[in-house]
Description:
Blueprint: E1 9-12, E2 22-25, H1 31-35, H2 37-40, H3 44-48, H4 55-77, H5 88-109
Antiparallel strand pairs: 1-2
Amino acid sequence: MPVKPKTQQKVAAAAPTAKGDEIEVSEPLNRREADHPRETYQTPANVVSDNNLNRQQKIDILQYWKADVEARLRAQDEGMGGSNPISAEKEAGLADEERLANQAIADLKE
């Protein structure tokens, strides 16, 4: 279901933090892109290169991506990874995704 068009609205982060942070969305986004960017795009660079999105939409999606990765890493650190903790390789991959998302956001805001 698409997000209702509004000039600016608040949408709960895809992976809310313990504080229930919200991310501001300035343009309507496809709900799947907004809530699950890691399922829609392979890398943060794919978001940046998507010509169907405007600059602010790209930033919004990357912020969701970053929130999701941060929540996964935080859950792992807090022992919430269940009986099968992620491998060091996968954890490093998530940390790399977070770094790439941060860099892409910074580049888009310049």
